Amino acid sequence: LGVQNVSVFLHELMHAADYRLGNAAEKGQHWRKETVAEFGAAILAECLGLEAEKDIGGAYRYIEQYAKAAEKDVQAACMECLDRICEAVNLILETAETLTDNALTVS
Question: Is residue 84 within 8 Å of residue 24, measured between CB atoms?
Fold first, then answer.
């Protein structure tokens, strides 16, 4: 991606995983897509132990702006996307595990 910010990288990685799972129906910066990407990026940062990069407050404000534009409550928007967030995070973690296992087998 050519980004230096880990949070941005994880956000875009979540978009890619979400897309790979067949969730490409929404066009542009739709509230659902952005909620999945931002919430998932915070989860991945937590999994990686990147305390500063998870920026929970920043993630909340980011999701809040999209939720408000869609006339949704932040918590309701997150709950509505929770399965999709978990599926994308799971895809990324399982792929990372497979790649790690394959690298260890080769070496």
Answer: no
